[in-house]
Specification:
alpha+beta, 29% strand, GIY-YIG_endonuc_sf, UPF0213_domain, GIY-YIG domain-containing protein, GIY-YIG_endonuc
Length: 83
């Protein structure tokens, strides 16, 4: 089982979309800035989970991640940002 997810950084009003096998561990890694030189590590502030969905295999998860990174996908994700 894989997860496609979207994180939100309120301080910078930025969204990150990714996929993983272990969702909670991945969120923790983003917040601990474990991915040096990555998009999420460059921005301070907390990354919070605003959207996730389960996908059966990695191929489909990568396909869904690509969809969510499109213009229409990002518009969909923006509706999940807490105000």
């Amino acid at each position: 089982m894989y997860y496609v997810y979207a994180l939100y950084n309120r301080k910078h009003d930025k969204i990150y979309i990714g996929q993983t096998k272990d969702l909670q561990t991945r969120i923790d890694l983003h917040n601990k800035r474990e991915f040096k030189n990555s998009y999420t590590a460059r921005l301070d502030g907390e990354w919070i989970l605003i959207y996730s969905e389960q996908i059966l295999d990695r191929t489909q998860a990568l396909k869904r991640e690509k969809q969510l990174k499109s213009y229409r996908g990002r518009e969909f994700i923006k509706r999940h940002i807490p105000r």
